[in-house]
Amino acid sequence: MVSKDELQRFFDAEFPHSRFDIESLGERMAVIRKHITGAHLRPGGTVSGPVLMEVADAALYVALLGTLGLVALAVTTNLNINFMRKPRADRDVIAECRLLKVGKTMVIGEVSLYSDGEPEPVAHATGTYAIPPVR
After folding, report:
1. Are 121 and 82 in contact (CB under 8 A)?
2. What structural domains does the chain harbor?
3. Helix (H, G, I), strand (E, B) or coil at 13
4. Nearest Cα to 70, choosing from 61, 60, 57, 58?
5. What's CA 130's distance to the chain center, in Å?
6. Which DSSP helix (H) or strand (E) runs through 50?
7. What are phi and psi of 106, to 5 degrees?
């Protein structure tokens, strides 16, 4: 398993535009934080859907890499998201990911997204990643 610090350094180097913090990392799970600024808001003063999708996908990737190691060529093959309530514009988005299946060729997980400090999720996502074959 990759450490939280190793994985944060990997994302900072390989995906500098991603800009999220890994809050916790464990076997088949991860929690990340996306710091929300005005650039992440849509008209109406709420966090945009694309930002929530980005955070969900990133949480899946963090949990996958934390579990399998730095499989950099793993790719998203499916992402489904349900927007449940309006995210707070003045709070970070917290994504809690749990991997449901970790196989040789695919990983399936789910992510609950929250406005920091709020008990009810703002969105729920499921996703699938393809794992490249070992050569």
Report:
1. no
2. 4-130 (3.10.129.10)
3. helix
4. 61
5. 16
6. helix 49-68
7. -150, 155
Instruction: Return the C-alpha torsion angle 37, 16, 96, 53, nearest 10.
Output: 70
- For residue 77, the SS3 value is strand
3-state DSSP assignment of residue 80: strand
The string of pLDDT tens digits covering residues 14-72 is 888 888 999 999 999 999 999 998 888 888 889 999 999 999 999 999 999 999 988 77
Which backbone phi and psi does 59 adopt, to 5 degrees?
A: -65, -40
Distance separating alpha carbons of residues 46 and 111, to the nearest angstrom: 19
Q: What is the pTM of this model?
A: 0.94
Q: What mean pLDDT is predicted for residues 95-107? A: 97
**At 76, is the pLDDT very low, low, confident or very high (cuts 50, 70, 90)?**
very high
